[in-house]
């Protein structure tokens, strides 16, 4: 746990408090989570662009950034883990270590003084909100048949 807090403080020192432009925020997330294959789907009409990074051996860890098409800024950030509660070929809780690492980065970027709260929430089964310095992080948990969805949606205050 000390390593996670240290990592969070180090990332906090290098991060800004507000969302940056969509493109800059996408670059920053790619760098922070060490995304090997980021993808940006261009916006169209009333839809903004979508940044996505899918990680893990079983591809259960997902980081998305939605663009506000009206101004090119970040509309929100979504981070989710499809937590396998039954063995789908990769074991129960596939990609848990990566989910823990990426949610730690999410916390450090958007609620740097509350990384422990972010981690505690993410591994719980209770919906909650975390009020960061300049972002609101809303956590939802949905239990499914064999796969539970753990998701944070981050918006700027």
What is the gist of this entry?
This protein is an alpha+beta fold. The chain has helices at residues 2-14, 22-33, 96-110, 115-122; strands at 39-41, 50-55, 61-68, 73-84, 128-131, 135-142, 147-156.
Helical coverage, percent range: 25-40%
Q: How many beta strands in the DSSP annotation?
A: 7
| Span between termini | 28 Å
Order of helices and strands: HHEEEEHHEEE
Structural class: alpha+beta
Query: What radius of gyration results from the CA coordinates?
Result: 15 Å
Write structural notes for this entry.
It contains four helices and seven strands. It is an alpha+beta fold. Helix 3 runs antiparallel to helix 4. The chain is about 30% helix and about 30% strand.
Write the topology of this structure.
Layout: H1 2-14, H2 22-33, E1 39-41, E2 50-55, E3 61-68, E4 73-84, H3 96-110, H4 115-122, E5 128-131, E6 135-142, E7 147-156
Antiparallel strand pairs: 1-2, 2-3, 3-4, 4-7, 5-6, 6-7
Helix pairs in contact: 1-3, 3-4
Which key terms come to mind for this protein?
157 residues; 31% helix; 7 strands; seven-stranded antiparallel sheet; alpha+beta
